[in-house]
């Protein structure tokens, strides 16, 4: 049984917004390390670990399990239809050690997630950290 | 030309001598003492028998004498240290002294990684296997009995079984090469001494060297603090290693996460990695699945 938080028909389907912040260039070593930390199960080479982008949207689904968790968000892009982003994170057993839980992202809630985007330009990314509407930050400790 | 050939033939020995010399010069006295046994035996079995002989007078393990290895553990350094040898410099090469063939394979692996080509059985939901088992950063658990110890690693739901009841290794004609091999051992006080053989070839991690199907090891596993277990492993692998590779890994009990458990690893159910014909890897997105 997988752990899914579906929100079909919820606020997540109707209220979407995207805010792309200019890429934040990070020191390559540090960024690379972050990518490795978040996706040790398989290669993170498909993600641009030198680039960090903030994506703001609404949670559609939070799949919390091993070996990877996935945050699916609906976001609005300027002048276009809503789009869906898949943001990959570590597995549940790692996230629980970081204080990130099954109910940390609820369908319909707004969240801003910093990610390393896919190099190929598709709407997929690797999780770095997240800031919820109340200011709570979810991230790897230290 | 003749001199060149002679130099090339002697290169592994020279490299080994240099590496060993440097290791002995740079290491503290305690580390030298721990490393010495692995360098003086020709085989892991010879090494293991010497440890068994040295422990011959030790009393038999009892339930009351077992170490407290309860709880959930994780490798020290976690995701920031996915190198087989924690002493490997962050931007340096693995500390193993590799034969020319395995050095060349290692260099190719690193060059491929730089190009985004990432061949790793774990990415394809295959087991990490041992000795790589020691490297992985996920949660672990021990089940400890006087005559039998189980070491579980969450990634891949992998399990190592240590038979401590005096049974020998499986005979060669009955033993399949296994990801975790065949492990027998004994207690020396509260230190667990283990010999492992019948392994499959593999890699120490995605950016680490390869090991051959002739790899065997000797481990001494013991508590070195209330919440720290140390695994002192010496790897013997003549096709791949010029000299045995001695590595010490530490595992910390997770004490600050209430209710932590080991979870199942449903890798095929949730792996989104897609391998391209050119060897690069990408991910399958939910939008792709709608197409």
Describe this structure in words.
The complex is a heterodimer of chains A (142) and B (291). Chain A is mainly beta and 142 residues long. Chain A has a single domain (11-139), classed as OB fold (Dihydrolipoamide Acetyltransferase, E2P) (Beta Barrel). Chain A has helices spanning 11-14, 28-38, 92-95, and strands at residues 24-25, 51-63, 68-76, 82-90, 110-117, 124-132, 137-139. Chain A has a five-stranded mixed barrel. In chain A, strand 2 (51-63) and strand 3 form a beta hairpin. The termini of chain A are far apart. With 291 residues, chain B is an alpha+beta fold. Chain B is built from six helices and 13 strands. Chain A binds chain B through residues 2, 29, 33, 36-38, 40-43, 45-46, 63, 65-68, 70, 72, 84, 86, 88, 91-94, 96-97, 118, 120, 122-124, and chain B through 74, 78-80, 82, 91, 113, 116, 118, 120, 122-123, 136-139, 154-155, 206, 254, 257, 260, 262-267, 269-273, 280-283, 285-287.
What are the SSEs and their pairings?
The complex is a heterodimer of chains A (142) and B (291).
Chain A: H1 11-14, E1 24-25, H2 28-38, E2 51-63, E3 68-76, E4 82-90, H3 92-95, E5 110-117, E6 124-132, E7 137-139
Parallel strand pairs in A: 4-6
Antiparallel strand pairs in A: 1-2, 2-3, 2-5, 3-4, 5-6, 6-7
Chain B: H1 2-26, H2 29-40, H3 44-54, E1 72-75, H4 100-114, E2 140-144, E3 148-153, E4 158-163, E5 182-188, E6 191-197, E7 202-203, E8 210-211, E9 216-225, E10 228-236, E11 245-253, H5 267-270, E12 273-275, E13 281-283, H6 286-290
Parallel strand pairs in B: 4-5
Antiparallel strand pairs in B: 1-2, 1-11, 2-3, 3-4, 5-6, 6-9, 7-8, 9-10, 10-11, 12-13
